[in-house]
Amino acid sequence: MVLKVLVVGGGGREHAIAAALAKNPDVQVYGVMARRNPGIARLSAGIGLLAETDTAGVVAWARSRGIDRAIIGPEAPLEAGVVDALEGAGIPTAGPRYAAARLETDKAFCRDLMQSHGIRGCPLYRVFRDPADAVPFLRDHEGDLAVKPAGLTGGKGVRIMGEQVDREGAIAYVKTLRGPVVLEERLIGEEFTLQAFVDGTRLVYMPLVQDHKRAFEGDTGPNTGGMGSYSMQDHALPFVTAPDEAEARAIMADAVAAIRRQGTPFHGILYGQFMNTAKGPRVIEFNARFGDPEAMNVLPLLATDFSGILCGITDGSLPSRVEWEPLATVCKYLVPEGYPDAPLSGQPLEPGDTDRALVYYGSVEEKDGRLTTLSSRTLAVVGKGPDLATAEAIAERAAAGVRGRVRHRRDIGTAALLAKRVTHMEALR
Ligand code: AMP
Ligand code: GLY
């Protein structure tokens, strides 16, 4: 029996999802995306080029191909209600419906849910329906604050006082915003990502990952969608203790229980972005999907059939255990020169000798077999190995071999950067 699975989305994360599904010879992968992703196209029995938020279009396309199940990569289709529409058409989908996706798409909803259900790990926060009302609070509040538009901003909407802006800068920034704003205490610590498969009730947790948001080496420069990420062979991180990880898991389980109690159960991938502080993990945000790049760390390690997990998510029957290879991973994104502020698009790009690395296509265009850059993260290279040093060497060699006007962060996954994280955390404790 062939299972036809539709992957919605056209970036590196969706390429990794498609690759994980395609490992099973009984799965036929289909894709819907705004622009043709050459990596997904090669793995697919068919692709539809349409806006991922075109709810009616996605449903019509899925129906015309006789799709059995779907999975949503990015957040925009979740917010557009694509899951509600696909399920309305009888296509069970791994991804939360609109109401449950608000955990990600509305930061005010997320904080209010945590507060009203007494979920731990919530920083002190205030919601302002009108950004103008946030100005006096910003002026008078003593400590540093994080300024966050409540809606989706592609990971680029947050400004941290004492980091990217001073108090006056934060006030000037909030004045430029439209729509509700969340102000919250600035958290100090080390960030980590914990993702879980969720079937409405149960969570199956994935290995811990650390992403790198800043554009340049040494964590400098503007925030990006994520420049690269790593995970360790023991699926833990040396600056996150076992009790810290258990606490992060419990916080995510409580969020899943709370959203279920509200009558809008969450079926999909829950992504917890945590700040490990001196007092333990605090939630920076929840996402209602795999991380990009974090999907590229965990999916290549999956030793359990992904299509079975996908069906477990939609049907409320996740297996209690999922197997992961005991390997470390390092993912590095090649981004156009000038990214994120003024990316140089339309430039030729050649992967070169990527050797043992896995390669995932992101924001690239392929014409006559030749790749050119678009305006966002282009190719992700992933090294897998028995330890971080091996995985890093594989990823770095592949990244350095890519020819074109692109750059990457050489420091991601290095022993030096890891040591810095550990020292920082020790100093805080
Ligand atoms: P987000 O768009 O929510 O992922 O936030 C982008 C980045 O801002 C995060 O990766 C954190 O580095 C930082 N950030 C968000 N909220 C806070 C906070 N309350 N305190 C400190 N840093 C934060
Ligand atoms: N890696 C951050 C994100 O996917 O939101």
List keywords for this structure.
Dna Ligase, domain 1, single chain, 429 residues, D-amino Acid Aminotransferase, Chain A, domain 1, binds adenosine monophosphate, 5-stranded parallel beta sheet, binds glycine, alpha+beta
Explained architecture:
This protein has 429 residues and is of the alpha+beta class. The chain has 4 domains: 3-97, 3-Layer(aba) Sandwich (Rossmann fold), CATH 3.40.50; 124-185, ATP-grasp fold, A domain (Dna Ligase, domain 1); 190-295, D-amino Acid Aminotransferase, Chain A, domain 1 (2-Layer Sandwich); 328-428, Glycinamide Ribonucleotide Synthetase, Chain A, domain 4. The chain is built from 14 helices and 25 strands. The longest helix is centred in the middle third of the chain and has 20 residues, at 242-261. It is globular and about 60 Å long. The site of adenosine monophosphate (AMP) has 14 residues, from strand 17.
Number of strands: 25
CATH topology of the largest domain: D-amino Acid Aminotransferase, Chain A, domain 1
The largest pleated sheet is described as: 6 strands, antiparallel
Number of domains: 4
Mean of residue pLDDT values:
97
Shape: globular
Q: What are the segments in which pLDDT stays under 50 over at least 5 consecutive residues?
A: none
In whole angstroms, the N-to-C terminal distance is 54 Å
Strand percent estimate: 25-35%
Cα radius of gyration in angstroms? 21 Å
What is the name of the CATH class of the largest domain? Alpha Beta
Judging by the overall fold, what is the CATH architecture of the largest domain? 2-Layer Sandwich
The portion of residues assigned to helices is 25-40%
> Total number of helical segments?
14
**SS-derived structural category:** alpha+beta
Heteromolecules bound: adenosine monophosphate, glycine
- Find the CATH superfamily of the largest domain: ATP-grasp fold, B domain
